[in-house]
Specification:
The chain is mainly alpha-helical. Helices cover about 45% and strands about 10% of the residues. The longest helix is centred in the C-terminal third of the chain and has 30 residues. The radius of gyration is 17 Å and the shape is globular. The chain binds zinc ion. The site of zinc ion has 5 residues, from α2.
Length: about 160
């Protein structure tokens, strides 16, 4: 962390929650704990913790350039997890069920939000490749690079 003071956040999670809850859930979802991730994450845009009823969005997106609908989409996605719960199949949690994926598409800017996140993932991926190349040229060793597809999969494990 730099010594620079964090600017006040451009987005208010409470406000985003209220709006998404009203628009898509008739205001019926009880407000979970809402937090930004402690650190910027390259792989996780959001998550919902059932045990602690905590919804976390990636701090990376808390900047003026992020379209509001992207945050609303992630909020909607995570609130769907809260609303639907999860199934346990063979001792594994199943959260992105066909029903989940169908309801997820009810989000009004579903395509725009996914497109934005895909481009963001690609850009972040290229940035990390460039950073790795710089490291490699210093150290002279070639680490195995994750494929773009692997990165995308990580990125979308919301
Ligand atoms: Zn999810």
């Amino acid at each position: 962390m730099s010594a620079m003071k964090k600017k006040s956040a451009p987005f208010d999670l409470n406000e985003i929650f209220e709006r998404v809850n009203e628009t898509y859930f008739d205001g019926k979802i009880a407000k979970p704990r809402l937090t930004w991730s402690a650190r910027v994450s390259k792989s996780t845009m959001g998550k919902y913790n059932y045990a602690t009823d905590t919804l976390t969005l990636n701090r990376l997106l808390n900047r003026a350039g992020t379209p509001r609908y992207v945050l609303e989409f992630l909020m909607y996605h995570e609130l769907l997890h809260k609303a639907l719960g999860y199934q346990v199949v063979n001792q594994r949690r199943r959260v992105h069920t066909p029903r989940f994926r169908k309801l997820e598409k009810n989000f009004r800017q579903y395509r725009e939000a996914n497109d934005y996140l895909r481009v963001l993932a690609k850009n972040e991926h290229e940035k990390s490749l460039a950073a790795r190349r710089r490291t490699v040229s210093v150290r002279g060793a070639e680490p195995r690079e994750k494929s773009y597809f692997e990165r995308l999969l990580e990125f979308f494990s919301l």
